[in-house]
Amino acid sequence: MSATLDHLVIAARTLEEGRAWLEGRLDLPMQDGGKHETFGTHNALLSLGPDCYLEVIAIDPGAPAPTRPRWFGLDTPEMKARLEDGPALIHWVAAVETLTAGPEVLDLSRGENRWTLTVPKDGGLPMNGVAPSRLVWHTPPP
Predict the structure, then answer these.
(1) 58-107, pLDDT tens digit by residue?
(2) What pairs with residue 95 in β-bridges?
(3) Which class for 76: exposed (0-12), middle (13-18), buried (19 or more C-beta within 10 A)?
(4) What confidence tens digit (pLDDT) does each residue in 1-46 have?
């Protein structure tokens, strides 16, 4: 199975904090992403080229609580403690051609974007962040 880097994930306590942190360091504006209803999160994006981007993600305070643990371990005490010092690069996502259906493979959407992603049942990072989440796009990526 071939895989390519799809995007890097920066988590923050709030989207505003994460966006300001990254824009201040890179002196580049991010574009609005959207809301992830399944996980009660929202994001902003920065293109790194035609097939790769940076994502800043945070819990959406206006969203209802999800029915399962949030992805990227955002609800865990460990991640909350890690983000106390500010936003952090926490993960990476690899684009693959196919994924086999299973309990950790979810069909997701944000606006018109549609994709399938591996998300551990506990919401944590695969292999504690050593392995990437794997993703198949069903629409052009943002």
Answers:
(1) 999 999 999 999 999 999 999 999 999 999 999 999 999 999 888 799 99
(2) 4, 135
(3) middle
(4) 689 999 999 999 999 999 999 999 999 999 999 999 999 999 999 9
Q: CA-to-CA distance for 48 and 114, rounded, in angstroms?
A: 20
Buried b or exposed e, range 41-61, using 16+ CB within 10 angstroms: bbbbbbeeeeeebbbbbbbbe
User: What residue segments make up the domains of the chain, in order of their start?
Assistant: 3-137
Q: Which of 65, 120, 56, 117 is nearest to 90 (CA)?
A: 56
77-95 b/e with 16+ CB inside 10 Å = b? eebeeebeeebeebbebbb
CATH homologous superfamily, domain 3-137: 2,3-Dihydroxybiphenyl 1,2-Dioxygenase, domain 1 (3.10.180.10)
CB atoms within 10 A of CB 134: 21
| pTM recorded for the entire structure | 0.93
